[in-house]
Design brief:
Blueprint: H1 2-11, H2 14-30, E1 51-52, E2 64-65, E3 75-80, H3 85-99, H4 101-105, E4 109-115, H5 119-129, E5 135-139, H6 143-148, E6 155-159, E7 165-170, H7 175-196
Parallel strand pairs: 3-4, 4-5
Antiparallel strand pairs: 1-2, 3-6, 6-7
Length: 197
């Protein structure tokens, strides 16, 4: 009788063992690879339709809408939030991008999309670290970010002058990522626009 009970006793632990194995697989996949390489289904497609209001209190900085991405120059759209630690880490890099004379000469504009943030907190964030954005759209419910396929903040999109999404960078930008990834993607977006003319 004890021989029949032993196999049934071992079967009780089968669900736990399967759960532990599944958790291990998810953990390995979570930390495998480069998060900035997550593909986007929107690459090569027009940016979604949106019209976001300006951040109240940020004087002289208008809101952001789809038509702002279709003015013939490459745009960078950075999705950020004051509550996001990595956004704070990358902020100095965004300030450097906005001050980059070579990018300015090429007509590149840097825009911000304030994601699920309180107005006062977003305003304080940009007042403390400086505002790198020519436009800031407020997306309190995160609807526009969802339409862009945002996984989390920060994310930065390179958008061609016709409003087509050319590239998506997931995670905080670093000086190295700007030099080795973002600038080449901006140049590719500019080259493809020139070739299409």
């Amino acid at each position: 009788m004890s021989d029949a009970v032993a196999p049934r006793s071992a079967l009780r632990f089968l669900p736990l063992a399967l759960f532990a194995l599944l958790a291990l697989v998810f953990l390995v996949r979570l930390f495998a690879g480069d998060a900035s390489r997550i593909p986007s289904a929107l690459i090569g497609k027009p940016a979604p339709a949106f019209d976001l209001p300006a951040l109240q209190g940020l004087a002289g900085v208008p809101g952001l809408a789809t038509q702002d991405l279709r003015k013939g120059h490459v745009s960078l759209v950075n999705v950020f939030a004051s509550w996001c630690g990595p956004c704070r880490q990358e902020h100095a890099v965004l300030m450097a991008i906005s001050a980059n004379e070579a990018l300015k000469a090429k007509g590149v504009e840097l825009y911000g999309l304030s994601y699920k943030d309180e107005t006062a907190n977003a305003l304080n964030f940009l007042e403390e670290g400086g505002n790198p954005f020519a436009r800031v759209g407020v997306d309190p419910a995160g609807r526009t970010a969802i339409d862009f396929g945002v996984y989390g903040v920060p994310e930065t999109f390179v958008i061609k002058g016709d409003g087509t999404i050319a590239y998506k960078f997931v995670g905080p930008l670093t000086p190295s990522a700007v030099a080795t990834t973002l600038i080449p993607e901006i140049e590719k977006a500019m080259a493809s626009a020139a070739a299409a003319r």
